[in-house]
Amino acid sequence: MKAPVGGKLTERDVTPETVYLNRRQYLKASAVGAAALMAPTLKASESAYGTDPAPLWLKSQNKQASPSPFSTTEKLTPYEYVTGYNNFYEFGTGKDDPEKYGQDFKPHPWQVTVSGLAEGTGTFDLEDLLKGLGVEERIYRLRCVEAWSMVIPWLGVPMAALLQRLKPLSSARYVAFETVYRPEEMPGQASFFAAIDYPYIEGLRMDEAMHPLTLMATGVYGRSLPNQNGAPLRLVVPWKYGFKSIKSIRKITFTDRQPQTTWEKSNAREYGFYANVNPAVDHPRWRQSEERRLPSALFSSNRVPTLPFNGYAESVASLYQGMDLRKYY
Amino acid sequence: MDKMLLTRWFWLFLVLPFAFAGFRVVQVVWYDASALGPDPAQNLVDLFGTIALWFLCAVLLVTPVQTVIKARWLLRQRRALGVACFAYALLHWLSYAGLLLEWQWQNLGQDLLNRPYVIVGFLAGLMLLVLAATSNNASVRVLGLRWRKLHRLVYPAALLILIHMFWVARSDYTEVALYSAVVLLLLLHRSRQRAKSA
Description:
The complex is a heterodimer.
Chain A: H1 23-29, H2 31-34, H3 56-63, E1 66-67, H4 79-82, H5 97-101, E2 111-116, E3 122-125, H6 126-130, E4 136-143, E5 148-158, H7 159-164, E6 174-179, E7 201-205, H8 206-209, E8 215-220, E9 223-224, E10 234-236, E11 249-255, H9 262-266, E12 290-293, E13 303-305, H10 313-316
Parallel strand pairs in A: 1-4, 2-11, 5-12
Antiparallel strand pairs in A: 2-3, 4-5, 5-8, 6-7, 6-11, 8-9, 8-10, 12-13
Chain B: H1 3-8, H2 10-31, H3 40-69, H4 72-76, H5 78-100, H6 105-114, H7 116-133, H8 137-143, H9 145-150, H10 154-168, H11 174-197
Helix pairs in contact in B: 2-5, 3-5, 3-11, 5-7, 6-7, 7-10, 10-11
C-alpha cells in the first residue's frame, strides 16, 4: 500500500516555503495577526474537543502546529458550531446532517492520487504526502455563500509547500481537487434526487493555490479534522466562498485547462469558478453585502458588513488585477 | 371515538407546533442560547415554513380522506386547518422579515423585487391571506356560491409554494419531490372528482 505508483516522495522534496512565501512582506501586511501568536486552541486538551480517532502520526504532526501571523484575532466560533453546523452535502443537506450521518465514514487509512501535469504523480499514503511538512494553526474567517460566517482555528500545511513537492510542470495552470466517492458511507452521494453530481470537484488557478493564505487543512481546534469538517484532508481558501474549500480530498490533478467545478455544472449562473467573496456582486438567492457572524442571537442576528475578498483583499486582490470581477464571479 | 370530543379539542392539534416553537424560543431566550443552533433566526424561519406546509397538505387531504372514512366532523375542521396554515405562513414571513432581516425595509423590498423564490412565496402568502380573511361564517353566507370558487385559490397557492420550495432547494430535491408528490396527487384526485360530478 505504501509504494507510490508513479513518483516517490523523499525528504528532499520538502521545498522551503520561502520560495513561495515572502513572510516578511505578509508579516508587515498583517500586524494584527501578530497578536494571534498566542494561539488559544493549541493548548486545549483533547477531551475538550471530542475524542480524536486519527492515527498517531497525524495527531502528533497536528500537535506540533505553530501559530501563524495570518491568523485573525476575532472571536472564535465555538467548537460545537464549527463541528455541528456544516454544509457537507455528501452526508445530507441539513446543517446537522454531516455530524449526524458522518460518523460511519472512515478517513483512515487514506490515499491521495496525484495526476496530470506534474512530475510527482502517483498514489500516495497521506502520511507520506504530509511527512515533514510543518503544520500551522491559522485562524481564518470562513464566509459561506449563504450569507453567514464563522471564525475557525484550522490546522494545516501551506498548500504551496504540499503542491511544490509534487513538482508541477510549468504548463500546469490550474489544479483540480476531487472529494472521495463512497456512497455506501456517504448517504448524500446515494440520494436519488441529488441536484449536484458526485464526486464533488473544485479547482484553483495555480497562483491561487500557491498563495501563502491557501491552506491544506488537517485539523481544527487543536485536533484532527472530524468527519463532518472534511477529514482527513480539506482545502481552506479564506478569501473565497466556503464551497470552494473542498473536503475529504482524494484526488489532485494538475491541468492546463480551467476545471469545471461541481457547482458551476449544477448552476453556472449562481456559482462561478472564482467565487471570491464580493459584497458588490449579488447572488440570486442571498444578499452578499452583509453576513451573519455565527453564532447569531434570535433577536439580534449579529450582522456584519461583508468585506471584499472576505477581508483578505490586501493579500489577494493583486491576483485578479485587470479582471472584471462581475464577469468572473 | 367521541366525535364531540375530537371537535372540541381539535384546536390543540393546531397550536401544538406553535407551542413547540414557543418552547424553543423561551429556551433560547432564557435558558440555553444554543437550543436553536448557531443561526436561530434562520432555523425558526425554516421551522414555521415547514409547519405551514404540513397544514397545507392537511387541508388538501381533508376531502379525499373524508370520502374514504366518512368523517364529517373532519370536514368541519377544514377551515380551521386552513387558517392555521395561514397563521404559520405569517409566522414564517414575520421571522424572515423581523428576525433575519431585522425590518430593513429596503432589503425586504429588494428581495421582493429581485429574488424569484421570494416573489412566488409572497404571492402564495397573499392568496392564503385572502382565504383566511374570508374563512368566517359571515363570508361564506355573503359570498354564497362565489365562496367555493374563491377558495379554489388554495390550488394555485399550493403550486406556488412548491415552486418556492423548489427554488429554495440547492442541492437535493428529495424533500421537494416528496411534498410535490403529495400535493400533485391530491390535485389530481380533486380534478377527477370534479370531472365525475360535472
